[in-house]
Amino acid sequence: MDLIKKKDYDKVYDTLYKNIYDENSCVMELTLKDFKYMNNKLYVFNKYFTIPGMILFYAPWCKTCKNLSDGIIEIAYSKINTFHIGSVNVENIEMRNDVLSSLAKVKYYPTIKMIQKDGSLKDYDGKLTIDNLLFYINSIIEQEYEL
Prior knowledge:
Layout: H1 6-16, E1 27-29, E2 35-38, E3 41-44, E4 53-58, H2 63-78, E5 84-89, H3 97-103, E6 111-115, E7 121-123, H4 130-145
Parallel strand pairs: 1-5, 4-5
Antiparallel strand pairs: 2-3, 4-6, 6-7
């Protein structure tokens, strides 16, 4: 039986499990410890989210998730002072993100949840395109800052 070479293993691991967003992307990678589940609702408990924001639940192997990532990063950079974006790698079972995705009732990837003023999450039900997402985010910013 042939052993899998380490570089082949690393490549497979990166494809299936490695976070899409890194610390330089302005998209904060979140884990179960950044959330609280109370009264049958999931809340964000992370000091980064003191302004409007959203959470993107994704799987690293998901082609749609990867295709959206550059646009998500671009939005995160352009809205850094008015809207924050967090992401959850649902395949990160070491950090219990599989439990988190279950609590968030994630059924498909990517799933986007908007953060309400009380920190609770609300489903984004628009089309999963960068243009539609940007339009939606801009409307939230306008309401929040009464522009």
